[in-house]
Amino acid sequence: DMKRRIIFALLALLLPLFALAQKGLHANAAFTGQIVPQDQTVEVKVRGKALSTYRLTFYHSVRFKANAQQKTTMDNLVTQDKAQATGTELRRKGHTSSLILCLPPQGRTHRYLCYLTNRSKDHWSITLVYMEGSVSSIDELRKLIK
User: Fold this and answer.
1) How far is the C-alpha of 58 from the C-alpha of 90, rounded, in Å?
2) In terms of C-beta density within 10 A (0-12 exposed, 13-18 middle, 19 or more buried), how is residue 82 classed?
3) Banded pLDDT at 87 (limits 50, 70, 90)
4) What percentage of the chain has pLDDT greater than the value 90?
5) I want to staple 97 with a disulfide (CB 3.0 to 4.6 A). Which of 57, 92, 107, 139 is the partner?
6) What is the pLDDT of residues 5-16, one digit of tens each?
7) Spatial contact of 85 and 100, defined as CB atoms under 8 Å apart
8) How high is the mean pLDDT of the chain?
9) DSSP codes joined into one string, the chain
10) Bridge partner residues of 90 (DSSP)
């Protein structure tokens, strides 16, 4: 029972650290279930060795289907984050678009926000990805994720 208490105490202390990385971003609302309920999203969080090949230390993505109103909300949040970006890259092809924002670094850690949208008949497929690590440019990042 004491062991269980210690584990829960450690989890309570460590869990907020995962959210800290993208805290301060308007688009963080998508990661916390404020746009689409979390049970309707596919979320991936990766830290550590698995990412070292890509020179990243943290990867967090959320994918979901959005209606027009939710898509507009996401567009507005990402636009607000774009205002503080030090670099951007937008690519469009048909009903698909990808926007990569290079966010101001935190110390030596470079930060990126990727916003991918794809229009279907009755909804939008949205993927939002937050990444951080030693990758120092969008071009470099693109080479790694191809």
Assistant:
1) 23
2) middle
3) very high
4) 58
5) 92
6) 666 555 555 444
7) no
8) 86
9) -HHHHHHHHHHHHHHHHHHHTTTT-TTHHHHTTSSS-GGGEEEEEEESHHHHTTTEEEEEEEEEEE-HHHHHHHHHHHHHHHTT-SEEEEEEETTEEEEEEEEEEETTEEEEEEEEEEE-SS-EEEEEEEEEES--SHHHHHHHH-
10) 99
Task: Please give the pLDDT value at position 19.
Answer: 47
Per the CB < 8 A criterion, the answer to whether 117 and 96 are in contact is: yes
| pLDDT surpassing 90 at residue 2 | no
64, 57, 104, 28: CA torsion to nearest 10? 30
Residue 16 has phi, psi (to 5 degrees) of: -60, -25
Contact 36, 64 (CB under 8 A): yes
Residue linked to tokens 């309570």: 12
CB within 8 Å of 33: residues ≥ 6 apart: 41
Given the structure tokens 């596919």, which residue do they identify?
42
Band (pLDDT 50/70/90 cuts) for residue 63 is very high
